[in-house]
């Protein structure tokens, strides 16, 4: 994503454009659409649906648009999920690889039909696709065949606790580039610019890292923190920054943060993984790559109860979860504390 300096206030009215992914399902569910329009009304947001362009235009202030966009994403995922699971208990999806190497969902009817056969241990069968072609499905090889054309197919399951706004994907790991007009992009950029506004020349992209395995680990620990510290402060979860070289960024996206690398940039407040609420501070540790690009993580971090750290600490004292400088730096010692 690219950064643009902005002085717009969060209460100024603006337009946000959302992409409609399942227009036919929305048209067929008027009661759901009416409920969404009513929600927009309570948020003082004007929604305009353009089914020809498959876009939803939202007119309201930044905060209200964020809520309206999130609700719309949840609505689409819910409709898609319910439609494809009429006869299926679990959140299951079937995908095919299109001609342009992207992975796309089968239509709901085919998802149901394929899953029914998969659940019945029938691995070779024939179906009619959405344009009336008689295609052969081989679940041993995970391919769809029609004449000389062969497509790879995949099965995925949606984890019940994963965020509703995550992009549906057949993969357990995915890097999703956010649209510059989306509220998720604007919210992250707004927080970033609070301390970084004059420290960079161009924001190239903002990506959402969807790593299901790491998210499950984080969610399990988050539940423990909520039980320990209460729901009011969301189990002491905070959004913090972490700067690092490009090579380390790739490892983090795949495997998560690793305490084994602590000490490479000092360990003044403890021998763990360092985070800061100040993006410009983390920027100092985001060393440029060969083409002078930097990478910074904006992560969910479970702070818990924090104590003042020092360079000899390998883990916090009993009753504490992290160490800190008492200002903006926090050091984590449990790999699952971060998502």
How would you characterize the overall build of this protein?
This protein is an alpha+beta fold. 29% of the residues lie in helices and 27% in strands. The protein contains eight helices and 17 strands. The strands form five sheets. Strands 5-4-9-8-7-6 form a six-stranded antiparallel β-sheet, with helices on one face. Strands 13-17-16-15 form a four-stranded mixed β-sheet. Strand 8 and strand 9 (149-157) form a beta hairpin. It is globular. The two termini are 20 Å apart. Residues 1-8 have low confidence and may be disordered.
Helices and strands: which structural class? Answer: alpha+beta
Order of helices and strands: EHHEEHEEHEEEEEHEHEHEHEEEE
Strand order of the largest sheet: 5-4-9-8-7-6
Quick check: average pLDDT? 85
Q: List how many beta strands DSSP finds.
A: 17
Distance between the termini: 20 Å
Helix content: 25-40%
Query: What's the oligomerization state?
Result: single chain
Low-confidence blocks of residues: 1-8
Based on CA atoms alone, the radius of gyration comes out at: 23 Å
The shape is globular
The share of residues in extended strands comes to: 25-35%
Count of runs of 4 or more consecutive helical residues? 8
Largest sheet: 6 strands, antiparallel
């Amino acid at each position: 994503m690219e950064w643009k300096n902005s002085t717009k206030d969060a209460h100024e009215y603006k337009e946000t454009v959302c992409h409609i992914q399942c227009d036919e399902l929305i048209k067929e569910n008027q009661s759901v659409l009416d409920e969404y329009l009513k929600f927009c009304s309570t948020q003082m947001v004007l929604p305009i649906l353009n089914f020809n362009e498959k876009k939803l235009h939202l007119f309201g202030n930044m905060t209200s648009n964020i809520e309206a966009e999130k609700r719309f994403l949840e609505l689409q995922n819910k409709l898609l999920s319910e439609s494809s699971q009429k006869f299926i208990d679990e959140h299951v999806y079937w995908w095919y690889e299109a001609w342009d190497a992207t992975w796309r969902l089968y239509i709901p009817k085919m998802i149901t039909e394929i899953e029914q056969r998969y659940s019945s241990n029938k691995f070779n069968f024939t179906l009619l696709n959405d344009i009336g072609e008689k295609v052969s499905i081989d679940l041993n090889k995970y391919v769809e065949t029609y004449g000389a054309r062969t497509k790879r197919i995949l099965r995925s399951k949606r984890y019940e606790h994963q965020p509703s706004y995550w992009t549906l994907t057949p993969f357990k790991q995915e890097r999703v580039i956010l649209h510059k007009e989306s509220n998720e992009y604007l919210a992250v950029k707004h927080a970033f610019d609070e301390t970084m506004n004059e420290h960079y020349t161009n924001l190239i992209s903002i990506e959402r890292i969807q790593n299901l395995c790491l998210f499950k680990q984080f969610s399990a620990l988050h539940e423990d923190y909520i039980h320990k510290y209460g729901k009011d402060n969301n189990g002491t979860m905070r959004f913090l920054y972490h700067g690092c070289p490009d090579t380390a960024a790739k490892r983090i996206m795949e495997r998560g943060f690793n305490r084994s690398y602590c000490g490479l940039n000092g360990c003044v407040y403890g021998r763990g993984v360092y985070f800061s609420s100040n993006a410009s501070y983390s920027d100092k540790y985001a060393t440029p790559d060969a083409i002078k690009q930097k990478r910074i993580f904006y992560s969910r971090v479970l702070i818990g109860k924090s104590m003042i750290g020092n360079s000899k600490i390998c883990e916090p004292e009993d009753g504490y979860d992290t160490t800190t400088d008492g200002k903006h730096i926090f050091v984590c010692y449990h790999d699952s504390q971060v998502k």
